[in-house]
């Protein structure tokens, strides 16, 4: 019986809706709120509440432990009540909605409904939190609470699908109280600045190009050629000098104590890895002190 009634009323309702929207589209358009704004307002509200809770937590941490921690549900209740009072009661919009220039239809929220809204959004969560916090030993209550919470999740999901289809009343409370959002600054769609995105893309492309080309540049050879170019005096001709290795000898390349001393033919000593690494990177590697050049190198033998 009930179902049939619903089926009967639904088409007529839709027609009525369409009828009321079609002739004065102007009015509908000014009140239109995009779905994304409505969802964002909920997200913002959650963020604001969490932010304030975190602040209160930080303050409570300074106090001696156990002084106020057992009053957690009450603290949250007071915070939520204050938020509700300064947003919904006075402005008919939550803070998240105010940030996005949305508000509830004022005429849809008479004082009785306002009280109901307070009950559903503030008192009920407090009762739930209180029961979860205090009645931990009452397994039956906990089980019931769990069940109610699961049902709530399910109802929320159903309501969300309904919202996606209709574009109104994103939260369960809105749906229960039959209150709609309306836009405060006309039918402004969200404008997304694509110029930033384009700039970001250009930068990303440029960085990718750099990442691709830089490994091809032989930076060691380039450095050597540049150094030779800038050097005015000619490199001194190499005389047959003996390699000297003492306890204080430092590597000509890394200037650290030499590890596995090797030399190219001049009197300068290199670590094996410094020499090998440089010769692998740049086939024309020159001694960076005397510019002696050789493609081979030998171990320094201490006589
Ligand atoms: Zn070295
Ligand atoms: Zn040298």
UniProtKB/TrEMBL annotation:
Coiled-coil intervals, chain numbering: none
Protein name per UniProt: RING-type E3 ubiquitin transferase (cysteine targeting)
Stretches that traverse the bilayer: 201-222
Pathway assigned to this chain's UniProt record: Protein modification; protein ubiquitination
Domain of life: Eukaryota
Organism whose genome encodes this protein: Anopheles merus
EC number annotated for this UniProt entry: 2.3.2.36
Domain RING-type residues, every copy: 251-291
Catalysis performed (reactions): [E2 ubiquitin-conjugating enzyme]-S-ubiquitinyl-L-cysteine + [acceptor protein]-L-cysteine = [E2 ubiquitin-conjugating enzyme]-L-cysteine + [acceptor protein]-S-ubiquitinyl-L-cysteine
Keywords tagged on the record: Membrane, Metal-binding, Peroxisome, Protein transport, Transferase, Transmembrane, Transmembrane helix, Transport, Ubl conjugation pathway, Zinc, Zinc-finger
Bilayer disposition of the protein: Multi-pass membrane protein
Keyword Cell membrane: no
Entry keyword GTP-binding: no
Stretch list, region Disordered: 1-27
Root EC class: transferase
Biased composition (Polar residues): 8-18
GO BP field: protein import into peroxisome matrix
Pfam families reported for this sequence: Pex2_Pex12
Family to which this protein belongs: Belongs to the pex2/pex10/pex12 family.
Any one GO MF annotation of this record: zinc ion binding
Subcellular location: Peroxisome membrane
Record-level GO cellular component terms: peroxisomal membrane
């Amino acid at each position: 019986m009930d179902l049939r009634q619903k089926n009967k009323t639904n088409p007529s309702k839709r027609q009525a809706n369409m009828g009321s929207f079609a002739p004065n589209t102007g009015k509908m358009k000014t009140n239109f709120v995009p779905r994304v704004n409505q969802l964002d307002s909920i997200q913002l509200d959650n963020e604001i509440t969490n932010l304030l809770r975190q602040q209160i937590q930080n303050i409570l941490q300074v106090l001696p432990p156990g002084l106020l921690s057992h009053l957690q549900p009450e603290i949250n209740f007071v915070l939520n009540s204050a938020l509700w009072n300064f947003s919904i009661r006075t402005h008919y919009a939550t803070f998240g909605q105010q940030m996005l220039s949305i508000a509830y239809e004022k005429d849809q929220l008479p004082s009785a409904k306002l009280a109901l809204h307070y009950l559903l959004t503030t008192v009920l969560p407090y009762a739930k939190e209180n029961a979860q916090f205090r009645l931990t030993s009452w397994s039956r209550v906990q089980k019931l609470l769990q069940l109610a919470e699961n049902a709530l999740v399910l109802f929320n999901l159903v309501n969300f699908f309904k919202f996606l289809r209709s574009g109104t009343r994103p939260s369960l409370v809105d749906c229960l109280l039959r209150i709609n959002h309306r836009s405060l600054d006309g039918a402004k769609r969200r404008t997304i600045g694509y110029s930033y995105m384009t700039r970001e893309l250009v930068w990303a492309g440029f960085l990718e190009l750099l990442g691709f080309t830089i490994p091809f540049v032989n930076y060691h050879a380039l450095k050597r050629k540049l150094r030779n170019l800038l050097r005015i005096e000619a490199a001194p001709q190499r005389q047959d000098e003996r390699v000297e290795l003492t306890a204080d000898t430092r590597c000509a390349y890394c200037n650290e104590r030499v590890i596995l001393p090797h030399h190219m033919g001049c009197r300068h000593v290199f670590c094996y890895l410094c020499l090998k690494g440089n010769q692998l990177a740049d086939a024309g590697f020159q001694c960076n002190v005397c510019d002696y050049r050789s493609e081979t190198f030998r171990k320094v033998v201490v006589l």
